Amino acid sequence: MDKHLTWRIIKAFYELYHTGRTKAWIVAHVYVKHLLQSRYLEYKRGVKDVLLASFRFCLLYEKEQWEILYQKYATFLGQYDLLSPYKDFTEFDLNRLMSIAQSAQVLEEFRENIRIGHENWQGVSNFFFKATKHIEKGTVLEDAVLRILGSVLRDWPVCDSNT
User: Fold this and answer.
1) How far apart are CA 98 and CA 44, in angstroms?
2) 139 CB-side CA count, 13 A
3) In what order do the strands lie in the sheet with 21-23?
């Protein structure tokens, strides 16, 4: 089953593993529904807003190495001040953001091209996310990319779809 995990789900799995419980808001996620149906997770008796981890979930957590994933993403997000309960990223986005952060030479080229007006959001989005409209104006992802690329990019002109 394709999990399509997000940062919030990984964080909730971390909480489930370490405390044995988490808020049930994650039940809307398809993979979490599967875990409930397969009895890896269960609702707390008489309380529908709390999920409890079974022993099987703990084994799955270790097998899937979600601890390593959590530590990797938490460290990265903390480094760029992106740890917030309101910010959620897919694993794809997190891996692309980490790639951006590790691409020092490419970032310098983008910064220079932006400064002289030869680059825009669509170019950055296409280069790192392989889609010209993946980074949308005013989104959490845009904010994360701006934090990683640096404040020089805060003054980017708004790109319309014709450029």
Assistant:
1) 37
2) 12
3) 21-23, 47-53, 41-44
* Amino acid identity, position 63: K
In this model, does residue 105 exceed pLDDT 80? no
CB 57 within 8 A of CB 17: yes
**Cβ-count burial of 102 within 10 angstroms (0-12 exposed, 13-18 middle, 19+ buried)?**
exposed
In sequence order, the 6+-apart residues with CB closer than 8 A to the CB of 76 are: 94, 97, 98, 101
Listed residue (66, 88, 156, 144) closest to 119, CA to CA: 156
Does residue 130 come out as left (phi exceeding 0), alpha (psi in the -120 to 50 range) or beta?
left
118-140 pLDDT per residue, tens: 877 778 778 888 776 787 888 88
What are 42-72's pLDDT values in tens digits? 999 999 899 999 999 999 999 999 999 999 9
> Measured between alpha carbons, how far is 94 from 56 in angstroms, rounded to an integer?
27
Give the amino acid at 35: L
pTM reported for the whole predicted model = 0.77
